[in-house]
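Lab notebook, bench 4. Still working through the backlog of constructs that have no structural model yet. Next entry is a single chain of 237 residues. Request: give me the structure tokens for it.
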Amino acid sequence: MEDKKYAPAYAHNAIEELFENVYWVHGSIKIAPGMTMNRNMIILKQGSELTLINPVRLNSQEEVKLCALGDIKKVLRLCDFHGLDDQYYIDHFKAEFWCQKGQSIYKAPIPDTIIEEETPSPIENSEFFIFSTAKFPEAALLLKNHNLLITTDSIQNLTNWSYTTFLTKVVLRLMGFKKELLIGKPWIKKVTPKGESMQGDFERLLNLDFDHLIAAHGTLLRDNAKPALQQVVAKTF
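Model written out:
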């Protein structure tokens, strides 16, 4: 019997390897009746330990495969708006929970470690980036070994609208989403303090050294991610 304390495992793809010791699951979430959209979980393997970024609950078959990769030790939430399945992994695998202060959508669980700009990342040769101007928590993680930038809602590479229903596509188009690399207009509107701009945060982000980008929605942007993002930032601001 399904434990109603947790959300069900929504439809998702199999676990795939993106880079050495970096995996992802391309899944989905129900946001309203008749409306679903895609979302991604990133899995980082370090020795025998796994760190899940923006967790997505898996069906029983894929959960077995996940456990075969290593021991789930940490859960990282990089965005205020992504936390549906955090509690499931924390309860079932006794994982440490990392997030920023001020979570408003999913206020539980209480973090074991608060993510701030100076917080050392639990992943070797990586660093956190904090969108310090944002009214709601939003961060990114740079994996220097792979020149890979992991984002959540701030930047999305929406070349793939899989798991997105027709009604959701209509709404997304009305909100200004297209099948491209973008900074979402609804996110910018929600997180920007009145009378201020997020431009400075993105200019700081562009000081990081990265070639690839993957977000909580869409697909991997492999190669030339930084110049592509420079164009998006210039167009957005």
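Notes after review: The chain has six helices and 13 strands. The chain has a mean pLDDT of 95. Flag for follow-up if needed.
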